[in-house]
């Protein structure tokens, strides 16, 4: 379980300045289940709004606190390495294992985004935000309305492996592409064969090699400068090693002088040793230069042959090379030249070659079809299992007659264009709110509270397979109470074992399950300041839960009920 958590992100803290009723607040979040409670209008939902802005939601000047120039919201997230690399690739800055996102909204409606101090955009943040936080609220549309997302979720849950299918899909597409290209080329076959034959003949005659042109130019440069190389090297060696006056002799004298004071100071000894080592290196270099000079000789015949070879290669490159970068064009020429004979064979074969390729395509299509059917079967089994598990969960969340359905629609297996890189299936998530109701897309039939509870049930079932690190639920307890509310809390606590869960709630039966309990209070002047978001101690928490139960925090009966609820959680 620990390794799962380490591979996910989580929200560490959020800082809010001049947003709605919140004047100034810095809220730290921990792992596990955190609940935010407080009286109506105290600013609980504004915390959710702030987080939405950090994650790339659309800004609105009306959100800026009256009298302020701008609202500033900063969120800090702990992130795994793969997400850190994604954020860095998008231009953001990551500090070790965390990223800080700052969103500024001016009273004129202008918005600015920083990711780790680097200027970014709302679009860039919105691209990686789904890996940070999943928000379930009445105002948010479910990510599962997109068929692609629903399919990916099902595949993760069912452990569907697409690599075998995708191998056949790629091979089939490559053969089909070859057939299409060949069919097009056959319309100009004679001209194409003539050009390819000319290239193949000249290529075979020259047999160019990778990197050869650069090597030839280097050899030409050397052989064309033999006289200058001889002169400069001889002069240099004379200055370095001449018996009468040489650099090495002078340096040897310096070394002997320094040896007289060696041992007087360890710091000086290091300098003397370094001098001696450099002197030995110079002697080695002198030997290398002498050896190079001894082997240096003019070779007019080879020089002429290299010039001729260079001219021939450049001529071939000029006629058949592609692109403005000479080195890249030369290497591409090698590929074109080596493949010319195969292309000639394709073109010369005419319709017979196309027929042969079509037979290969037909055989590959059989393999592709079988692989697609195997994937669809896995999805059917996984979809049935997921439907049953989630439906069982939501029945305990005050929706006893509701049904969660994974709908799988498979395209005709005999039509090649129906195959996609992900198979033949379109996956939809449907919901029926009561017995006899038609199953429709989740976001069209579920109310805000129902949607949050359905998503809670789903997240509990698939938590281990999901990459999301933080879940936020608002109105998950709408329309429930009593035993159902206790079950909502129980499932939130269960989800919190696999990810960070933050819940905005007004129900004590939910709040008692929290690992961390924050209360948002509004001061007398109607604002929320730094001191008005409080982490509850055990005793203070009991008082807050009593207030949530009865509206009166000093009620003895409510406090006894709060103690009873907390005991239920401890004993669960």
Automatic annotation (TrEMBL):
GO terms, molecular function: ATP binding
CDD domains reported for this sequence: ABC_RecN (cd03241)
Domain RecF/RecN/SMC N-terminal stretches: 11-527
Entry annotated with the keyword Transmembrane helix: no
Gene3D superfamilies reported for this sequence: P-loop containing nucleotide triphosphate hydrolases
GO biological process: DNA recombination; DNA repair; SOS response
Cleavable signal peptide: none
Coiled coil: 172-199
A GO cellular component entry from the record: bacterial nucleoid
Domain of life: Bacteria
This protein's UniProt keywords: ATP-binding, Coiled coil, DNA damage, DNA repair, Nucleotide-binding
PANTHER family for the chain: DNA REPAIR PROTEIN RECN (PTHR11059:SF0)
Sequence similarity: Belongs to the RecN family.
Function: May be involved in recombinational repair of damaged DNA.
Protein name (record): DNA repair protein RecN
